[in-house]
């Protein structure tokens, strides 16, 4: 596809960068449904969006396997059973803008707000079954990586896009890693990876490679910019890329894999009946400590926390939607609303998290500043 002719996949997205195309939805619209419709799924790209022919496009499996394999889409569908997994996809840079504003420091990258997340019913084939068909036999003496690449277009910082996950994650029967070809009951769209993309539930979005054409079992991580010199949470004192290079921090820091426990206030409505109240809605995202168990919301800077009602959660990998009605009839006008998530293992979302150069994995309390309020006023919020 010629970048000069590239158009917006959806007019409901807020475009933050034209070339390559990067855009996100408004959070209030995002949380209005459990499964994110196509027009509200964020677009994150390091290259122009690709329009590929499924009749000729192939994905290969190789490296430390007994049988190198190569498949077209129709062959994969014929040979392997179709499976489904509901999983939230979140960009590592979600809430980057919030990090920069709270820390009053510049962050490197697209200034994402809080809509770089979606919840989708993915369908495709089990990565574990694909690798078993290729004859993978993980050794007991050393860990291996599953390297995934897309060579269909030059990216902004490299000639191709490549990354990896631990092979153990791909081979875990409960890991639910799939080679996806459908989303929400229909084929993947070009902007979301048609005909193939990797789905790695629980892992950050950069590992979910779109337009994937290469899957390699290796004892080395890929030598690609986006894996070796990007998407790493560098120490707070590393303030520039020059410092990162001179201090060898890119090589000393492991790639970000897991999403952090997180939650966001998506919308606040002022309600007049039955009593003056705030109707607050949002989403929460699991971390490595298990699915979200509770979301709490405060309108008095943490003096009183209200337990939100969970309106949607599905399985181990979905996002969590929540809402709560907070009585504000005492006469004190709240200036902000905060939220925090608690997971199954008792982990609590922190009030704040450290600044890092790339603005990754920010997970401080979700917040809505009511002094800049633009929501509904005076509505009847009887539940």
Architecture blueprint of SSEs:
Elements: E1 14-17, E2 22-24, H1 27-30, E3 59-63, E4 69-71, H2 73-79, E5 83-90, H3 96-103, E6 117-126, H4 127-133, E7 145-150, E8 161-166, H5 167-171, E9 178-183, E10 186-187, E11 197-199, E12 214-218, H6 225-228, H7 241-246, H8 249-252, E13 262-273, E14 277-285, E15 292-298, E16 306-307, E17 309-312, E18 320-327, E19 336-343, E20 366-369, E21 379-380
Parallel strand pairs: 3-12, 13-21
Antiparallel strand pairs: 1-2, 3-4, 5-6, 6-9, 7-8, 7-12, 9-10, 9-11, 13-14, 14-18, 15-16, 15-19, 17-18, 19-20
3D structure, described in words:
InterPro entries: Ig_E-set, MoCF_OxRdtse_dimer, Mopterin_OxRdtase_euk, OxRdtase_Mopterin-bd_dom, OxRdtase_Mopterin-bd_sf. This protein folds into two domains: 3-252, Sulfite Oxidase, Chain A, domain 2 (Alpha-Beta Complex); 262-380, Immunoglobulin-like (Sandwich), CATH 2.60.40. By secondary structure, the protein is mainly β. A hairpin with a 3-residue loop joins strand 13 (262-273) and strand 14. The chain is globular and about 70 Å long. It has helices at 27-30, 73-79, 96-103, 127-133, 167-171, 225-228, 241-246, 249-252, and strands spanning 14-17, 22-24, 59-63, 69-71, 83-90, 117-126, 145-150, 161-166, 178-183, 186-187, 197-199, 214-218, 262-273, 277-285, 292-298, 306-307, 309-312, 320-327, 336-343, 366-369, 379-380. The model is unreliable at 1-7 and 376-383 (pLDDT under 50). The protein contains eight helices and 21 strands.
């Amino acid at each position: 596809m010629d970048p000069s002719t590239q158009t917006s996949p959806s007019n409901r997205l807020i475009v933050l960068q034209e070339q390559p195309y990067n855009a996100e939805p408004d959070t209030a619209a995002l949380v209005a449904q459990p499964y994110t419709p196509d027009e509200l799924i964020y677009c994150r790209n390091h290259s122009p969006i690709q329009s590929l022919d499924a009749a000729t496009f192939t994905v290969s499996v190789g490296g430390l396997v007994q049988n190198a394999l190569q498949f077209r889409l129709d062959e994969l569908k014929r040979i392997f059973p179709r499976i489904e997994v509901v999983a939230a996809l979140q960009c590592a840079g979600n809430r980057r803008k919030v990090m920069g504003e709270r820390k009053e420091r510049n962050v490197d990258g697209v200034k994402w707000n809080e809509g770089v997340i979606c919840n989708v019913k993915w369908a495709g084939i089990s990565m574990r079954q694909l690798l078993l068909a290729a004859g993978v036999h993980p050794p007991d003496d050393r860990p291996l990586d599953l390297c995934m690449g897309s060579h269909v277009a030059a990216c902004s910082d490299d000639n191709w896009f490549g990354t990896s996950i631990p092979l153990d994650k791909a081979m875990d029967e409960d890991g639910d890693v799939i080679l996806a070809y459908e989303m929400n009951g229909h084929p993947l769209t070009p902007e979301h990876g048609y005909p193939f993309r990797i789905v790695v539930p629980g892992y950050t979005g950069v590992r979910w490679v779109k337009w994937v054409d290469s899957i390699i079992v290796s004892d080395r991580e890929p030598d690609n910019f986006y894996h070796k010199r990007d998407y790493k949470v560098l120490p707070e004192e590393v303030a520039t890329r020059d410092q990162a290079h001179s201090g060898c921090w890119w090589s000393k820091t492991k790639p970000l894999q897991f999403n952090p426990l997180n939650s966001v206030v998506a919308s606040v409505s002022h309600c007049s009946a039955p009593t003056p109240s705030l109707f607050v809605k949002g989403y929460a995202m699991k971390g490595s400590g298990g699915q979200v168990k509770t979301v709490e919301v405060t309108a008095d800077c943490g003096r009183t926390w209200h337990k939100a009602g969970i309106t949607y959660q599905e399985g181990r990998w979905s996002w969590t939607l929540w809402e709560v009605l907070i009585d504000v009839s005492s006469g004190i006008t709240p200036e902000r609303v905060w939220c925090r998530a608690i997971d199954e293992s008792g982990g609590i979302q922190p009030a704040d998290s450290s600044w890092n150069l790339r603005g990754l994995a920010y997970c401080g309390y979700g917040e809505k500043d009511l002094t800049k309020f633009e929501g509904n006023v005076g509505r009847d919020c009887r539940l």
